[in-house]
Amino acid sequence: MGRLTRREIECVQLAGLRLSNQEIAEVLGITPSTVANYLQSANAKLGTSHRRAAAQALGIQYPGAGMTDAELAERLPERLRPAVSPGVGNPIDDRPWAARFWRPPPANRFIRLGVIVGVTALWLLVLGGLTSLVMTIFSTLDAWRPS
Question: Which pTM was predicted?
Fold first, then answer.
């Protein structure tokens, strides 16, 4: 695997801010298909399969690479700027840029709880059925045993 180019790093960094290929192309002055090619190449080099994983891997494998917060603020149009402003004493600013802007999708706790309860109930039914089967086999063998 080769090292990432400057453009690949910039594309991954902007993708980590949840910008679309069209928005990244607008910021960098290239076409959306070129952005897609850069992201595909970066994913291959970083060993990731999607843009958010690439942004996380970039922050880990290439610390300090990419545009600084000041460069981002200068290059991003106002409508694309993240809610967190760099350098205003926000404790989030102490984290690397990829960790600062990447957020996992919110998980629905009730769905997760339902799956856990359902799988547990299924296992209890299976174990109860196995216990019943074993007891039936033993009682049948006991009935066949000569007195």
Answer: 0.54
